[in-house]
Amino acid sequence: MIDTLPRREREVFETLCRLEAGTTAEVRAALSDPLSDSAVRTMLSRLEAKGLIERTSGPEGVRYRPAQETETVAVGALRRVIDTFFAGSAASAASALLGMGERLTPDEAAALEAMIDKAVEAGAVATGKDKA
């Protein structure tokens, strides 16, 4: 559903996901190309009507947050990117990410190693024996 949103609605939604929750003013301030306050309110209302975000009232006013966990939304978006640009290969996508020149912290490298080890142990990695 997210990939069918108009560009600005998708930008507002992605900004809210990045913030995890926020008021209209907070969302507006976080946009790379800010919209008017009323335009942000309109887009948040549209996203709410589509079931993508929820609102709550609190002491600081109305706050919005994604209806789904941000991680769930991120996994879906990443799956679409992998399917579209990397022919469904998570390894190709990971290689592209690592090849972008960003240096990994020791903690990030250890986490990646642990995830690879876990995938191998769970049998989620093809071995040379699988071809027989």
From TrEMBL:
InterPro entries: BlaI_family, WH-like_DNA-bd_sf, WH_DNA-bd_sf
The entry's keywords: DNA-binding, Transcription, Transcription regulation
Highest taxon in the source lineage: Bacteria
SUPFAM superfamilies named in the record: Winged helix' DNA-binding domain
Similarity comment: family membership: Belongs to the BlaI transcriptional regulatory family.
Protein's name in the database: BlaI/MecI/CopY family transcriptional regulator
Upper classification of the organism: Bacteria, Pseudomonadati, Pseudomonadota, Alphaproteobacteria, Caulobacterales
